[in-house]
Design a protein that fits this description.
With 287 residues, the chain is α/β, with parallel strands linked by helices. The chain has a domain of 183 residues. Helix content is 47%, strand content 16%. The protein is built from 11 helices and 9 strands. The strands form 2 sheets. The chain has a 7-stranded mixed beta sheet with strand order 1-9-8-2-5-3-4, sandwiched between helices. A two-stranded antiparallel sheet has the order 6-7. Helix 8 links the parallel strand 3 and strand 4. Helix 2 crosses helix 4 and helix 3 crosses helix 4. The longest helix is centred in the N-terminal third of the chain and has 20 residues. The relative contact order is 0.17.
Length: 287
């Protein structure tokens, strides 16, 4: 019942001005900040590890800014899932579509910035895309989420259970793949490469997929802007990628994400235990 009530209120959001939705989301984020003791602790640990040069007061301001941005991103789901395409085009600008090749498979590298769902919805207005979909435990929420992410251009949502086979098949069929490879998924298929100077278990899927499918990698960065607006930027495809050195390729991925996160640190997804998996013998960060 609570899920249905929550979804009803998300549906109502579409009728509000986007600027107001963003403001309400900032307030909601502060509610999460005060109530979410565990997530607040995780964000503090992540930021302490990644920004040791900052003093405690500055880092705490960054934690609060992150929760506000996170709350905004949640509120805006109601717009993404139910508002008109014209409204999305008005508030979400896209630059760099010309960087998506038309003569070879394409992987769109979409790091976990808080606007990644905005970018997905906006880009599916422009292209037929594919991505991975994880089934949700609650059937009602799963149905709404799946429908919300499938609104435009009939995107291909591949079950995580299909693994690499389904992704490679989509890539070779010419469908650009929207890929989010920068979370800690455990030690399987991962190697330790630095992220903000900290060894981080990072899956090597980007390099392996690019090699298997002969795909170009086009980075995508989404930035929250004032007034409820967003900018989605597609950057030129990486040269010499994959390079044949899977560790160098994975390090390049993390270096790129770190570089972008430093320009808007409040908008990277710090609520995730990015350093959960540790090298053998190294103490855990979150215990």
């Amino acid at each position: 019942m609570l899920i249905r009530i929550g979804l009803f209120f998300m549906w109502l959001v579409q009728f509000l001005p986007w600027r107001l939705v963003a403001a309400i989301g900032h307030g909601l984020g502060m509610v999460f900040y005060w109530l979410g003791k565990e997530r607040r602790r995780v964000a503090r640990i992540n930021l302490r590890r990644c920004f040791p040069e900052l003093d405690d007061t500055t880092r705490e301001k960054l934690v609060r800014a992150h929760f506000r941005a996170f709350g905004r991103s949640l509120m805006e789901r109601g717009i993404l899932w139910w508002s008109s395409p014209a409204r999305l085009k008005k508030y979400v600008t896209v630059s760099g579509l010309e960087h998506i090749p038309t003569d070879r498979p394409v992987i769109i590298l979409a790091p976990h910035f808080l606007g990644l769902d905005v970018a997905w919805s906006r880009l599916t207005l422009e292209r037929h895309l594919a991505s991975v979909y994880a089934e949700q435990k609650n059937e009602t929420f799963d149905a709404v989420l799946l429908k919300g992410r499938s609104r435009f251009n009939a995107p291909l949502l591949i079950s995580r259970l299909d693994g690499l086979r389904g992704i490679v098949k989509a890539l070779k069929s010419g469908v650009p793949f929207y890929y989010l490879p920068d979370l800690d998924y455990g030690p399987r298929d991962a190697i330790f490469v630095p992220f903000f100077g900290v060894p981080a278990a990072t899956i090597t899927g980007l390099s392996r997929l690019a090699k298997l499918a002969g795909a170009a990698v086009v980075p995508c960065v989404t930035r929250q802007l004032p007034g409820g607006r967003y900018n989605v930027t597609l950057l030129p495809a990486w040269d010499n990628y994959p390079s044949g050195d899977i560790e160098a390729d994975t390090r390049r991925q993390n270096d790129f994400i770190e570089q972008q996160a430093r320009t808007m640190p409040e908008q990277y997804y710090w609520l995730h235990k990015r350093f959960k998996t540790r090298p053998e013998g190294e103490p855990r960060f979150y215990d």
